[in-house]
Design a protein that fits this description.
One of its GO terms (biological process) is protein retention in ER lumen. Belongs to the ERD2 family. It is found in: Endoplasmic reticulum membrane. By secondary structure, the protein is mainly alpha-helical. The chain is built from 9 helices and no strands. Helix content is about 70%, strand content about 0%. The longest helix is centred in the C-terminal third of the chain and has 27 residues, at about 155-185. It is globular, with a radius of gyration of 18 Å. It starts with a helix and ends in a 10-residue tail after the last helix.
């Protein structure tokens, strides 16, 4: 994948979102408003997408970023589920989205259908199937986190920044795709990636609206609650 300002900004936004979340857990020492289920979905995304770490070499930058995403996400999950005093502040009743049933499983079925349509039985490839699964799953992985934020209503500052930078990462990657399609003559278009990227960005639309609104007014950031 070619490097340009939009891709670099997207990668840095993604990395910064993870750093902000780790910082938030370390400073606040509680997991209120954080969805560990979103983190588990993202870990599934990274583990199924980055299997090429064992099969190919795409340069130091790509390798380091992939390892960082996997390890940092695993660290976040471990911290919330097992590290005191943080684990005692994690509210399972608020983070109740059935992520394996309503996110991972449908993504797996859809990935299988898409892969079979695109390649057929003879062209079946497990690594390609898992990559397709990761693209679809990533588009909805943020859902448990958004549900938790709406249930709490008021959003803690670092938590809001975490979700904002995570959403900005995907929006910047859309600009990356547009830019590359214009400047790279032989750029290969991935319609599934485009569709999933747009869906993922749309899911953040309501959050972005209230986030920017709160920053303009300088008041507390809150979302309409679903209680």
């Amino acid at each position: 994948m070619g490097m340009n300002i939009f891709r670099m900004a997207g990668d840095m936004s993604h990395l910064f979102s993870i750093i902000v979340l780790l910082l938030r857990l370390r400073v606040a020492k509680n997991a209120q408003g954080i969805s560990v289920k979103t983190q588990e979905l993202y870990l599934a995304v990274f583990l199924t997408r980055y299997l090429d770490l064992f099969t190919s070499w795409f340069g130091l930058y790509n390798t380091v970023m992939k390892i960082v995403y996997i390890c940092s996400t695993a660290a976040i999950i471990y911290t919330i589920r097992y590290k005191e005093p943080i684990k005692t502040t994690y509210d399972k009743s608020q983070d109740s989205f059935l992520h394996w049933q309503f996110a991972a499983a449908p993504s797996a079925v859809l990935a299988l259908i898409v892969h079979l349509i695109g390649s057929g039985i003879k062209g079946f490839n497990v690594l390609e199937l898992l990559w397709t699964f990761s693209i679809i799953l990533e588009s909805i992985a943020i859902l448990p986190q958004l549900v938790v934020l709406q249930r709490y209503g008021e959003v803690e500052n670092l938590t809001g920044n975490y979700v904002f930078f995570l959403g900005a990462y995907r929006a910047l990657y859309i600009l990356n795709w547009v830019y590359r399609s214009q400047v790279e003559p032989h750029y290969r278009h991935h319609w599934l990636t485009y569709i999933c990227g747009i869906i993922q960005t749309i899911l953040y639309a309501d959050f972005f609206y209230y986030y920017i609104k709160s920053k303009r007014k300088g008041g507390k950031f809150s979302l309409p609650t679903t209680k």
